[in-house]
Amino acid sequence: MIALATPRLFDGTALLRDRVVVIDAGRIATVTDRAPAGVVAETLPPDTILAPGFVDLQVNGGGGVLFNDAITVDAMRRIAAAHAGCGTTTILPTLISGTRTQLRTALGAAEAAIGQQVPGVGGLHLEGPFIALARRGIHPASAITAITDEDVALLAAPRPCKLLLTLAPEAVAPDRVTHLARAGVVVFAGHSDAHYEQATVALAAGATGFTHLFNAMSQFSARAPGVVGAALAHVDAYAGIIVDGHHVHPAAVAAAFAAKGARRLFLVSDAMATAASDVDRFTLNGATIRLRDGRLTDDAGTLAGAHLTMVEAVRNAVRLAGIPLADALRMATAAPAACMRLADRGRLAAGCRADLVALDRDLRVTAVWQGGAAVALAKAAPHR
User: Domain 2-50+351-374 belongs to what architecture?
Assistant: First the structure.
């Protein structure tokens, strides 16, 4: 049993003063105002904020590894470890519009990772390939395809891991969305050119959110609200958002926060191989992706994911978009965990996994615990 005494604690909902977190057998035993009798608490520095480990539902890569290039348990392990060193203790490894063979391989790898209790792997995110060609972004045109009954059966099959599926509502019939949702798949609209009405039908059919709000989707206008309008108007729907200063203007982030709040708007990194590493380029579907001034783009200038970690997203949400700190932390912890029904993540409460991150006054990671064990911090790499 160990105890951590912190001057400030974010429990997933609110910032609290002078709390002690007691950890036993990899889980939180209690959060109290003093250490139990016979337990000596480690006192954290006076400017520390202790928070739940970050939960990132869109992680294409990290630590120099791209999941599309190595759809294996080992790749998941390496990517998760790289992000853990930056405070993200749960990720969904994300496959970018893979072939059907790759989909099956990714599902098998995720099931194996959960079975092996690979630290940090919370499930799988399949971003495509059932998306709109017109909004594919960096996704390969050759992989985009229509969904079939066999695809639905594969995705809806019982499995031990959480599954998030991004699809275009105009490309997938509502009854198939319902089938997937009832099977436990978390269905998000994204990479979509849908009308507002089509997105609304998908929500009624069982979709619960939107992938990287504002990006790769039909935009908002007065007479055609599009997918963006559907995300903002349906306040109970979740939406991930990339807050790196490149994908979404800070004013748009602030507007989305005003519309949805920290319970439904959550941060994602959309991280690529360069995140949490000193790698400055990689290849995606034959195209060279380069890191310049914090942006990842191909030779045509198309954004290709993000060079971002969740702690950077939290800092950006506070400093660029003016989001209150407690809300920014909730957007990186409790909100994404609730979205994926990860009941024991994203909060500091009795029974939850002992996944924690310590931050200093500048919101830099100073310590990380995963399942109660200390994690080696990642070395900060300069932005190029």
Answer: Roll (2.30)
**Rounded Cα gap, residues 380 and 275, in angstroms:** 10
192, 187, 264, 276: which is closest to 233 by C-alpha?
A: 264
Q: Which fold has domain 54-339?
A: TIM Barrel (3.20.20)
The per-residue pLDDT for range 48-99, each reduced to its tens digit, is 999 999 999 999 999 999 999 999 999 999 999 999 999 999 999 999 999 9
| Beta strands at 265-268 and 238-242: parallel, antiparallel or unpaired | parallel
Chain position carrying tokens 């996944």: 355
Scan for tokens 């030779």, then name that residue.
299
pTM of the full predicted structure? 0.97
Provide the token pair at 181.
């949702």
Q: Domain segments of the chain: what residues? A: 2-50+351-374, 54-339
Token code pair at residue 131: 């998306």
Helix (H) or strand (E) holding 357: strand 356-359
Distance CA 189, CA 176 (A): 13
- CA-to-CA distance for 346 and 329, rounded, in angstroms? 10
Q: How far apart are CA 74 and CA 137, in angstroms?
A: 28
Q: If DSSP codes are grouped into helix, strand and coil, which group holds residue 20?
A: strand
Side by side, the strands of the sheet bearing 123-127 are: 54-59, 88-96, 123-127, 162-167, 186-189, 209-210, 238-242, 265-268
How would you classify residue 32: left for phi > 0, otherwise alpha for psi between -120 and 50, otherwise beta? beta
Active site residue 270: yes
Q: Which of 33, 270, 299, 327 is catalytic?
A: 270
